[in-house]
Amino acid sequence: AEIKDLDVPWKDAPPPQWVGQFRQLSYSGLQTSVVPAAWTKLDRPMTATLIPKARGRDWVRFTNHAVIQSIQGMPPEQAQSEGASGSASIGGIWISPQALANLRTQQVIERHDLVGTTTLVSNAGPGIVTLSETGPAHRMDWTYDASSGMLTGVTLTQQIGLAQITHNLRLSGQQ
Q: In what order do the strands lie in the sheet with 77-86?
């Protein structure tokens, strides 16, 4: 096991004003399961709704209600989990716009040699910044709106046995 302090470039940046005011963030997209050896692919619509439970100056604790639609006639899969995001989070619901403006494509944010993961800036283009974490059996991408700092998309691709499962969500609403 290993304990490691991360020194992310945005850790001291203040959160955007909307972080203290939002009542809900909604994301929608697809869960795609592909088994190449069996020539199968299954797309299922999914949603995630984040509702804040508590806030501090640099953090938000929230409930995430996730729903994945099932095959016709079956009830959807539903899960509720607790989450938290803070100014120094990797993959959190915000990164300060000022900090996003300073990130550069291919900039390494963190390496974790014990588990074989690397997190870097995969795209610092006009209007968006995407962070990507890659490991031996997964890739996670978090896309942020450069002007608001809000997480606008998340994609997780995992290799689980013979199946490759991808969760792809995009911001679909905010209150």
A: 77-86, 59-68, 40-55, 25-35, 163-174, 151-160, 138-145, 128-135, 117-125, 108-112
